[in-house]
Hints:
Layout: H1 3-12, H2 14-24, H3 26-31, E1 34-38, E2 43-48, H4 62-81, E3 88-99, E4 106-111, H5 114-125, E5 130-140, E6 146-158
Antiparallel strand pairs: 1-2, 2-4, 3-6, 4-5, 5-6
Helix pairs in contact: 1-4, 4-5
Amino acid sequence: MNEKSKFQTLVKNGFMFKLYLLKRLPLAFIAGIAVTNLTNEQSITTVNYKWLTQNPFQSMYFACLAMAAEMSTGLLLLNGIYKSQPTISMLIVKNEAAYFKKAIGKIKFTCNDGLRVLETIKKAKESSESFVIDLTATGIDEVGDVVATFVFTWSLKAKAKKV
Length: 163
């Protein structure tokens, strides 16, 4: 089993992933963000409209949408750098969002940029330079309507080897 599939197995283990969220991303844990698919090409996360995720306008608070969208992009990066040598640091340097419809019910965020992620990680490993990549997450409601799109600009850089 390669390292990428090991990471995917860890993420797909619901109990282990919830423990990870509780330890590293407690707000995502509280909001109930879940991963429904993770491959080298695609990541899908979901978040439900409920009392904890609501805003005063009877829809989902934008920050909850942003957390689920960010996770769908970040998981592709984490999948690509899991146990990587050299290690790769990642950081969001920009975020853009567009909202089209009230977010009610279960919202599914899909990012299909996995192959571009793997190409960018390969470049970062071969260089001491930073690389940026724009990853798009599209949020769809239960009837199939686009609720929001997010574009996260991530910076990737291989960490210098310690001498």
